[in-house]
Amino acid sequence: MTHTSEPRGLRAELETLTTEAFRPELADVDRLPTLGIARLMNGEDATVAAAVAERLPAIAAAIDAVAERMARGGRLVYAGAGTAGRLGVLDASECPPTFNTSPGQVVGLIAGGPGALVTSVEGAEDSAELAAADLDALELTADDTVVGVSASGRTPYAVGAVTHARARGALTVGLACNAGSPLAAAAGHGIEVVVGPELLTGSTRLKAGTAQKLVLNMISTITMIRLGKTYGNLMVDVRASNEKLRARSRRIVALATGAADADVERALAAADGEVKNAILVLLADVDGPTAARLLDGADGHLRAALAASAGRP
Question: Which proteins does it associate with, and in what oligomeric form (predicted)?
């Protein structure tokens, strides 16, 4: 007896997707030497940055909209299934130590919940209702942003998340790797990075996953730059939660100020370990509480705080 695991309509739909296309010229890839396969993969990967480059205006427009809302206290929420969901969770989890974001300020939702990070959750990606429930638990506001991530651009969880968020008045971004995707169409900002067929047919953890990682890096990093989480290219909001990050904190203060090690230590002590405050202590020649007040008045933007300190009586 023949058993078909997916509806015939879905199979036909997948066959129309660029990310699912079969490449007959690679049908014997398994017969190549390992170095030959590695060269093929490396060549494929080299095309991803160019595909992202074609979408930079759309990416920048989305980032400006995200930053505007986050400056008002909104949150950045990624929603996806499988690899796309894992990449969103990864990006969100790296924001607190890198940019000292508050808990819940950047959130990664994956279809099936945290367990789906390591184990496939059967059917979770097919549920738009599950996405709506996950978002309702966050009590979305109009200042929040939901970024749906899906290589195919048709995953019900991602499309459902964007559709539900838009109905709640939130900003929405749809990141896909196929042109004309339902996900991009459902979102206020559609970003379609078309990387072409994969080396392994339909294995979108490869080029599509790399493209998604590059774009998510841009969304979070540039948004945080816009929010004043950096000073130049220094991570001045880094959270010194371990010895490596404490060493990095000292180095950042030294790079930003040119101060001697002893002065750096003194400033960090006066600023309770806050890098941004310590830089202000040194560059503006103020005490710790004054540095904190200046930064509060500048919404955390170090350059603005420095300008304000220069204009003090």
Answer: Homodimer.
Query: How many Cα atoms within 13 Å fall on the side-chain side of residue 176?
Result: 25
Q: Give the residue carrying structure tokens 């047919």.
A: 201
Question: CA-CA distance, 56 to 53, in Å (whole number)?
Answer: 5
* Distance in angstroms (rounded) separating the CA atoms of residues 119 and 278: 43
- pLDDT one-digit tens code per residue, 194-216: 999 999 999 999 999 999 999 99
- Joined tokens for residue 258: 């040119």
Tell me how far apart the alpha carbons of residues 280 and 271 are, in angstroms, rounded to a whole number: 9
- Whether 146 and 173 have beta carbons less than 8 Å apart is answered as yes
Give catalytic residues, as residue numbers. 94, 125
Query: Parallel, antiparallel, or unpaired for β 76-80 and 145-150?
Result: parallel
- Residue 175: per-residue pLDDT: 98
List, in sequence order, every residue forming a beta bridge with 106; answer none if it has no partner: 76
Helix/strand/coil (H/E/C) assignment for every residue in 12-78:
HHHCCCHHHCCCHHHCCHHHCCHHHHHHHHHHHHCCHHHHHHCCHHHHHHHHHHHHHHHCCCCCEEE
How many residues belong to the chain?
313
- The model carries a pTM of 0.91
The full set of domains in the chain, from first to last, is 7-227 (3.40.50.10490), 230-311 (1.10.8.1080)
